[in-house]
Design brief:
With 401 residues, the protein is of the alpha/beta class. The chain is built from 12 helices and 16 strands. A hairpin with a 4-residue loop joins strand 9 and strand 10.
């Protein structure tokens, strides 16, 4: 069954902050770049990684935490000496002392929290995806522009050493015009489970595609030099989840008679790019296949090719470069090792952007395009035809473009 992302989220009250307070926060950050940057983290699952990364940076202090789990709040508060602990995110956003709000919540809450934080004069670092759909993402970017704040997304996979090496190789050595790419993340048994928000369409906005797709799409577009996707034709399937197969936790019952599996466990798409190239894109949580937590990106160029293949988050021997020298096929195996810390690096880059005071290119624009592409995939699957994307990310049917 094709699942289209929820167009609007459930109404959530937003914290309101006086204009004078937002202006004071702006002045403090822009006039004193050496002042400690004070961070509040909302969501304490993957948010604990945010806490560790921010706490490890010089001149950065985590001063507030918000989450629904009281034991987790106390544990992290004690570990990082944070005394401002809240159950409700609105209370954290309303804190005068917070300069940065880091969002690590279910996807449904990214939009309302970001809008409230930006309106309060705070910079926002957000887990992927930026939002449930294009309309929400555009509103977040517009708010970052209107309130002159940084909005960034945790696209940490592009920080892997093998991805960085491949991008550098393309820039320095080149593989000719890249005319086609293949990108995928495939799992053997990786459905998060019926009791997880990941499989709740209202909270997540979809299934495997909106969960794993943002990382693969971001790494791909980064490697290609940020072309724009202009057309998408996609299909989605949820057969395995409904049939009771593919659970990440095999002890959890996923039988179809519960009627509770409402998202896709597989999505496949063809992208057309504005440079004339194409992309075969596939994301799956589960499948009766050899693939088992495998990430793959292949770039086919006129003068060479690159394949990044990462099975089970492998940290070495993940990269191959293919060329032809004097009519003889040549395979190059770069000695690249991935040492982890990708979240720490992307958060450090976010902090550098905030401290730079030059925020024009850090309003979440590239994350908006990625959201628009995935949103178009869902819409294409729902209507059964190609969707075209205008430059600003607005989707239209092929015949309307």
């Amino acid at each position: 069954m094709s699942i289209e992302p929820i167009v609007t989220s459930s109404p959530v009250p937003q914290a309101t902050v006086p204009a004078a307070q937002a202006a004071a926060a702006e002045s403090a950050v822009k006039t004193n770049k050496l002042a400690p940057l004070r961070v509040g983290v909302i969501g304490l699952g993957i948010g604990s990684v945010h806490v560790a990364a921010f706490s490890g940076l010089p001149g950065v202090e985590v001063i507030a935490l918000a989450g629904k789990e009281p034991d987790r709040r106390r544990e992290l508060g004690e570990q990082y000496r944070v005394t401002n602990l809240f159950e409700h995110w609105e209370d954290l956003v309303a804190l005068d002392d917070v300069d940065v709000v880091s969002i690590a919540t279910p996807n449904l809450l990214h939009h309302p929290i970001a809008l409230a934080a930006l309106a309060a004069g705070k910079h926002v670092f957000c887990e992927k995806p930026l939002a449930l759909n294009t309309a929400q993402a555009r509103e977040m970017v517009d708010s970052a522009i209107a309130h002159d704040r940084v909005l960034e997304v945790a696209f940490n996979h592009r920080q892997r050493a093998d991805v960085q090496f491949a991008r550098s190789y393309i820039e320095t050595e080149g593989i000719g015009r890249i005319y086609h790419s293949r990108a995928s993340w495939k799992r053997r048994s990786g459905i998060p489970g019926l009791h997880s928000w990941f499989t709740n369409p209202a909270m997540a906005g979809g299934g495997a595609l909106i969960d794993l797709g943002p990382h693969v799409l971001d790494s791909l577009l980064f490697l290609l030099g940020e072309p724009r996707v202009v057309a998408v034709s996609a299909v989605t399937h949820g057969e395995l989840g409904r049939a009771g197969y593919g659970a990440m936790d095999r002890a959890e019952q996923m039988a179809s008679d519960t009627g509770a599996f409402e998202v896709e466990d597989l999505a496949s798409a063809l992208f057309r790019l504005d440079d004339g190239s194409s992309v075969a894109f596939e994301i799956s949580w589960a499948g009766h296949t050899v693939d088992d937590e495998d990430i793959s990106i292949e770039l086919l160029g006129e003068d060479g090719g690159i394949r990044l293949f990462v099975p089970h988050y492998k940290s070495e021997d993940t990269l191959r470069i293919y060329r032809d020298r004097s009519g003889t096929p040549l395979t190059i195996t770069p000695d690249v090792r991935v040492h982890g810390g990708d979240h720490a690096r992307v958060i450090a880059a976010f902090v550098d952007a905030v401290r730079s005071g030059n925020w024009t290119e850090h309003r979440g624009q590239y994350a908006l395009h990625r959201t628009a592409v995935l949103d178009a995939c869902y819409r294409s699957a729902a209507v059964g035809r190609e969707i075209t994307l205008a430059v600003e990310g607005r989707e239209t049917h092929q015949e309307d473009a």
